[in-house]
Amino acid sequence: MAAATFRYLVQLHKDVPKAARFYSEGLGFTIDVCSLRWAELHSGPLKLALLHSPRSKRNVNIFELESGGDVIDYLPPQLFSDHVEQKGYSSLLSFTVTDISSTVTKLMALGAELDGPIKHEIHGKVAAMRCADGHVLGLYEPA
């Protein structure tokens, strides 16, 4: 049996174009595809997909995405339920940056919130931020 291959990390967002701009302008991701419902970005080998999060709890079918016809055939309703949002489930993305202060400033201008102060550790500076849709970003500037 062949090993599974990583395709991309998918995050749910209320405003996909705004989220794509956040990752592009704030962290330098390249936007490959962006529509109101779906975006694909990359940074090096990492692929990040952004999916619109509808408020309904119905099953969602998404066909013929702008990414050359990829299909996500079925997404279960619990993926979009208020229960999941209320529990605070979120991905955590960790980024190495060259200047943590300027990155924090840029991301805050794009709607992120700093979750506590920038910490100065022996190995470098670290910070935690949340984007407008609540996803946690870890920032690390090596010493």
UniProtKB/TrEMBL annotation:
Q: Which residues form the Glyoxalase/fosfomycin resistance/dioxygenase domain?
A: 9-133
Instruction: Check the record and name the Pfam families matching this protein.
Output: Glyoxalase
InterPro entries hit by this protein = Anthracycline_SecMetBiosynth, Glyas_Bleomycin-R_OHBP_Dase, Glyas_Fos-R_dOase_dom
Signal sequence region? none
Q: Tell me which domain of life the UniProt entry assigns to the organism this sequence originates from.
A: Eukaryota
- The protein's name is Glyoxalase/fosfomycin resistance/dioxygenase domain-containing protein
Organism encoding this protein: Sesamum angolense
